[in-house]
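With this grant's support, we have paired protein sequences with backbone structure tokens. One protein thus recorded is set out beneath this paragraph:

_____
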Amino acid sequence: MSDAIVMEHVNKRFGKKTAVDGMDLRLPTGARYGFIGPNGAGKTTTIRMVMSILFPDAGRLSVLDKASATESKDRIGYLPEERGVYRKMKVAAFLRYMGKLKGVEASKLRSTVDDWLERVDLASAANKKCEELSKGMQQKVQFVASVLHEPELIILDEPFSGLDPVSTRLLRSLITEQHDQGRTIIFSTHVMAHAEELCDRIVMINQGQKVLDGTMDEIRAEHTARSLLFSPLDEHTGVDAAQRLPSIESVELRDGQYEATVREGISPQEVMPDLLAAAPSRSIAVRRPTLEDIFVENVTSSGHDGGTDESALRAELRGEGQREDAQEEAAQ
């Protein structure tokens, strides 16, 4: 299988700040790849270099077997982090214009645009000016503009930012559909759950450096479970008894259940009988590490956390501020 994107020892600096530091990547054709990490990690700078919006200070980069994206631009669909449409143009006219620029056949252009507007629930907005749409609706218009020419490579920078749950679910299904049709999908996100749901390969980026790269199965295989989720019949005595077990490092409340973290070198399966005996429970299960857990572990163990508070980092990786913005947008 050929590689859609190759980066070798790529660096990019802005003054004294190193935005991307020695990036080595090979993204296979046909993969569904996620660039994940907190805001400011270097994801967008990496994507802008792939798109030839920025150029590396050092290193080599190729896109679709060409030296730069400018040589393959009609084979690429791109949704940038900065949202922008021609505000005074009507929605359908804007999309027909974008399709014309991307080489969509004139005879198919109108029907292609109409079909896409129907699919993203914007058929009734076809003759509205882009500026009359909400930010979320404008974002869906831009997504359509990035895919209506049926590109081989689709690059989406924070595609779910600001979307309400219904629109997020719709966009997820459309991204999956594009991948099922054989297209290479690359998207960046700081919300781990989005990557976990959509990607078969992940690149974790922090402080401009790649901290992890592999398939979901490979990443999970390298990070063994270290905790048990349990719901004690008697909450007060059960939690106290669990905390006194020598094999248990800590017990914390997580999403309505208690999580017992076992000590290093001990498997949760070994501890389960002792925990049940000490704290009879309605349910008990091994908790597998999530991408959020794995990212936080990699960042803190590598010393690249920049002094970030772990709870604040976790909140960002869950998109908690983003959900509030989307709720405000939907309420307007």
